[in-house]
Amino acid sequence: MIRLINRKGPAALQNRPSGTVTMMVIRIGVAAICTWVSLAAVSGSGPSTRRAQSATATGASTPTVYPKWPFKAEEAARRQAETAKRLGIGGEIVLALSKDSKLKLQLIPAGEFLMGSPEEETHRNKDEGPQRKVRIAAPFYMSATEVTRGQFAAFVADSRYRTDAEKRGWSTAWQGGVKWGYLKGASWRKPGFKQTGAHPVVCVSWNDASAFCKWLTRKTGRRVRLPREAEWEYACRAGTDTAYQWGAGEGRMHGKGWCNPADQAAAVKFPIWGRDVVPWNDGYVFTAPVASYRRNAWGLYDMQGNVHEWCDDWYEATYYARARDGGGPMGPKSGSKRVVRGGSWFSWHWDLRSAYREDGGASGSTVYHGFRIAADLKGPTAGTTRPTSPASRPAAKAKP
C-alpha cells in the first residue's frame, strides 16, 4: 500500500535537503508500485485481471462500434448476430405488456453513419442538412413495429391513463376530404376511421408516448424510451445511404410493398390530393395493421409510412449546422417542439425519405401521429428472449 506523506513529512526527513527527500519519496513509491504489480500478477488480483474476471463471469463485453457505412442487408444481419453473441444478449427480445399483449424489439448494433440528406437529393428540405457523421456508440433495442392500438390499450387499462386528446376533447383530423381541422371527440379510441387492435395507435401526443415508455420501464425493469432522432434515422436506414430505404429505384414510382403512404385508394376517397399520390394501391386508405409490408435489414417494419413517429429530441431547424461532426446522437438541449419522423398514410412520396423531418408540439395529436419505442440493453425482460437475426425470420408478405 502506498501512503501519501504529510506535506511536513516525518521528522527524519525534515532535516534532509529537499531534492534528497523528493528522490526518496519517488524511489519508495516506485518500489511499492513494482512490488504491488508483481504480487497482483501472481495472485491475479490486479484491476485489469479483476475486470477480465468480472466480464467472464457475467458474459459482458465491449460492443463493437462499426465504422463502415453504407452496407448491405447481409452485413446488417451479420452485425446484429455478432453484437448479440459478443454481449451475450438476444438479437430479438419480447416485452410483456399484459397477459395477452407483447411487444417485440430488435437489436440495433452500434455504428457510425451519415445523418441527413445531401444537397442534391430531390425534395430535400433545409432542415435536413448539412450532412454530418454521427456515432452511435452503444447498441440499443427498437420495437419492430409501431405501438399498436391493442398495446396502448394494455397500458391504459393498467395505468388508467388519459391522453391529451381525451382531456381536451378533440384531435386534429382531415375533415370533409378538403381540409384539416379539430375533430371533436377524436382520440386513440375513436380516430374517425376503422381500426383493429393490430393497427398503430394514433391521436397520441409526445406526452402520451413518453408516459407509455415510463410505464413500461416500471413494469419491466428495463429503461424504455422514445428513440433519439439520430437513432431513429440510423435504424431506418439500416445501412442504406439512398433517399428511401428501398434503395435503388427511388421516388413515387417505387416502394410498392414497402410502406403505406398516400396511394391510389386515398386518391379515390380524397380527389383533392391530386397526382402526387403514389401510383399503386397498398390496400388501405388510412392506417394498415403493423408489419403488413416489408421489413428493413434490421427487422423493422413501417419505418416509412403508416404513421409519423415521435422522437425524444427537441426539434431545431438549424441544429445540424452547429452539431459536431462525428459526435453522438444527442439533439438540442431545449426547444419548443419535438421531432417527428417517418411519414404516414397521409404522406406524399417525398415525405417518406429517410432524412425527412417534421416537428410537433408535445401535447398535440393528429390522426396520423403514433410512435415506436427504444430500450437500453441493461435490465431484465418480461417475456421471452431469444437470439435471432433478420435472415433467420420468414419474410413478411407484402400487400398487393
Task: Describe the protein.
This protein is α+β, with helices and mostly antiparallel strands and 400 residues long. The protein has 2 domains: 11-57; 66-392, paralog of FGE (formylglycine-generating enzyme), CATH 3.90.1580.10. Helices cover 27% and strands 15% of the residues. It contains 10 helices and 14 strands. The chain has helices at residues 11-14, 18-43, 47-58, 73-87, 149-159, 164-168, 206-220, 229-237, 264-269, 319-322; strands spanning 92-96, 102-108, 111-115, 132-136, 140-143, 170-175, 179-184, 224-225, 308-314, 338-341, 357-360, 369-370, 374-375, 385-386. The strands form 4 sheets. It has a 6-stranded antiparallel β-sheet with strand order 8-13-5-2-1-14. Strand 6 (170-175) and strand 7 form a beta hairpin.
Please provide the count of β strands.
Answer: 14
Radius of gyration over C-alpha positions, nearest whole angstrom: 27 Å
Structural class: alpha+beta
CATH architecture designation of the largest domain: Alpha-Beta Complex
Strands of the biggest beta sheet: in what spatial order? 8-13-5-2-1-14
The whole-number mean of residue pLDDT values reads 82
For the termini, the CA-CA separation is: 74 Å
Looking at this structure, what is the CATH superfamily of the largest domain? Answer: paralog of FGE (formylglycine-generating enzyme)
Order of helices and strands: HHHHEEEEEHHEEHEHHEHEEEEE
In short:
The protein has helices at 11-14, 18-43, 47-58, 73-87, 149-159, 164-168, 206-220, 229-237, 264-269, 319-322; strands at residues 92-96, 102-108, 111-115, 132-136, 140-143, 170-175, 179-184, 224-225, 308-314, 338-341, 357-360, 369-370, 374-375, 385-386. The chain is α+β, with helices and mostly antiparallel strands.
